[in-house]
Sequence to fold (162 residues):
Amino acid sequence: MENIRIGTGFDVHRFITGRPLVLGGVTIDHPMGLEGHSDADVLVHAIIDALLGASNLPDIGQLFPDSSSSYKNISSLVLLEKVSALLRDKGISVINLDSTVICDRPKIARYIPDMKKNISEAMIGVSTDRIGIKGTTTEGLGFTGRGEGIAAQAVALVQLTI
Fold:
């Protein structure tokens, strides 16, 4: 057990008009997207921070700062690919991921298989059966319940193999 590590990630983005909504690398049918420097994929951002935390590495904002034009409108799946490569280089393998998207709208259940596929492909070697994605509402409470934005949380379990 001494080589097993756990990390958590949490992210929030507000809704804005004029931008597609991307969750788990999937464009979701919704009238608003999320505001952010990259594609604002709140789910992938939470997963990245969970992986980085479990690996005792700097957070997503330190690795991919919003002050850098290199990351403007970049797909968060590209950032996940970079983080996955960094973990592999450090001898860290992902045992599993679990995540929750928190919003009253849109409903995400029908998109989950494609989200898992995208995340799995970005993380070379992590099969979809080791990636959990759930959706939940806040029953109309708080900023997600009012439709102001989306939150996501994630947990990653990793193993140091070197």
Q: What stands out?
A: The longest helix spans residues 76-89. The chain has a mean pLDDT of 96.
